[in-house]
Structure formats: structure tokens, C-alpha cells
Amino acid sequence: MRNLVLSVIGDDRPGLVSALADAVAANGGNWERGQLAQLAGKFAGIVVVAVPADREDALVAAVTGLDGLLEVAVHSAGDPVLRDESWAPLTINVLGTDREGIVHELSSALSGGVTIESMTTRTREAPMAGGMLFEAELQVLVPPTVEPSEIRADLERIAAELLVDLEFDGE
Length: 171
What we know:
Shape: flat
Helix content: 25-40%
Structural class: alpha+beta
Number of helices: 4
Radius of gyration: 20 Å
Largest sheet: 4 strands, antiparallel
CATH superfamily of the largest domain: ACT domain
Mean pLDDT: 92
Strand order of the largest sheet: 2-3-1-4
Distance between the termini: 38 Å
Strand content: 35-45%
CATH topology of the largest domain: Alpha-Beta Plaits
Low-confidence stretches: none
Order of helices and strands: EHEEHEEHEEHE
Number of strands: 8
CATH class of the largest domain: Alpha Beta
């Protein structure tokens, strides 16, 4: 079996996931993992599928042939990065007034060896106060060579500058 990574985007409308899933299943593929979301009127995501090597070309043709529904780019999956139990999981939740540069500041603080496994961000109207709030949830893995308390200190310094609240789970 070969693993393929599909990146998809299209104008949001009913039936997009079904069309993609039909193309995968009809060509011997197995939908293994995915993250899909409606963002600013577009439907976008990334999906990992497994397919027998002899069915790969047909599956690629089918998913990239969804013209008018989805634009699909197909990539060969990379080798998995193996991490043992010495890598500490850490969940970071961020909430504060939205402003430019929040993601840049947060990701810069984490760039010293911490691996971001997933990151979800959004903005929403602030209740009663007006303006916009920024929210983020990051699932990270901290290698054994980095102290989680150092990551926390760096993020708390940035949080004070950005006027955002942080919560940590997993320390």
C-alpha cells in the first residue's frame, strides 16, 4: 500500500466530502486521516489515503479530475518521524484580543525544537466588549532536550506583551 497526501480546496457547498470519498473508495483507496474545514467561503483540507500501488494512478486521476468541485493536489507521503515516549505532549490554549502578529510570535517562541503536531486558530467577536478575540489551541511535542518550563516562560513573556491569556495542559 502507498500512502498519499491529498490537499483539497474548493468553493464551499454540499457534497464535497462525498465526492472526494467516492473517488477514493471507487479506486481502491482507504481514507485514513483528514482535517477539513470551511474557511472564508472555501472548503479546504488535507487527507491521507492508502492505496494499492497498482491502483495509485487511477486514484490520482479520479481525485484530480473533480474539476468544478475541488482542486486536489496529490503528494507522496513522507517517512514518519519516530518519537519515543520521552517527547512530552503539551497543549497550549491562547485567548486574547486579536492583533497582527500573534501567530508569528507564538510560533517563533516554539521554533527552538518543539514540534507542533496540530494548531487550530480562529477569531470571533468579543462578547460585550466589542472588537475581535483570537483563540488558538496548539498540540505540541517537547523533546527531552528542552524543558517544558522554558517553553512556558517564553510563551508567558510573549503573552504579557500581546495581552493574551495562556493555559497549559501536560506539563
